[in-house]
Amino acid sequence: QKEVEQNSGPLSVPEGAIASLNCTYSDRGSQSFFWYRQYSGKSPELIMFIYSNGDKEDGRFTAQLNKASQYVSLLIRDSQPSDSATYLCAVNMFERAKLTFGSGTQLTVLP
Amino acid sequence: EAGVAQSPRYKIIEKRQSVAFWCNPISGHATLYWYQQILGQGPKLLIQFQNNGVVDDSQLPKDRFSAERLKGVDSTLKIQPAKLEDSAVYLCASSPPTSPLHFGNGTRLTVT
Lengths: 111, 112
Description:
The structure holds two protein chains of two kinds.
Chain A: E1 4-6, E2 11-14, E3 19-25, E4 32-38, E5 45-50, E6 54-58, E7 61-66, E8 71-76, E9 85-92, E10 99-101, E11 105-110
Parallel strand pairs in A: 2-11
Antiparallel strand pairs in A: 1-3, 3-8, 4-5, 4-9, 6-7, 7-8, 9-10, 9-11
Chain B: E1 5-7, E2 10-13, E3 19-24, E4 31-37, E5 44-50, E6 53-56, E7 65-68, E8 75-79, E9 88-95, E10 102-103, E11 107-111
Parallel strand pairs in B: 2-11
Antiparallel strand pairs in B: 1-3, 3-8, 4-5, 4-9, 5-6, 7-8, 9-10, 9-11
């Protein structure tokens, strides 16, 4: 079982729709959860992080964490073509400092 | 605030040759990471430094890869000898304590 799993996609949504990206993790003791966006040929850039169960909103982005289900998601409201990228979920494992990444979900927002 | 600096941006070498990458983290960031990202995959941690000490190098292929962070600032990652499967983007990142990490632009390595 992979430590961090994401649906590789590709996921396509029309402009203006809500894009929902999902991530599951294997270590129940994981403490910190991050979403990075990576445009083709570029390095990952941090979008959001979440530490506590529930929702965290930042502009058009909402991160959702459910530690009981070992599940974290990212919602993008009013999706724009500029949101087209690969979204990487990353988890900071309990008692281990390293950040472990999933393989990413490729999102395409269609004009 | 200046970002994480990496060089070179691109490198093409033949298998069995050696190569080195350089990283200068954001000023004041004690933690420095080297990640390897193969096309279509997420970044994989190779080595993590806290100041000039190694925190985690469990996924570093130590028979061919080496890394150092002298004086707790700049870092170099070396591959010797390179294999075809080392073709990837090598990402350096840094972070202050308990904060998310920030990536440099990466070095794209092609081994032919």
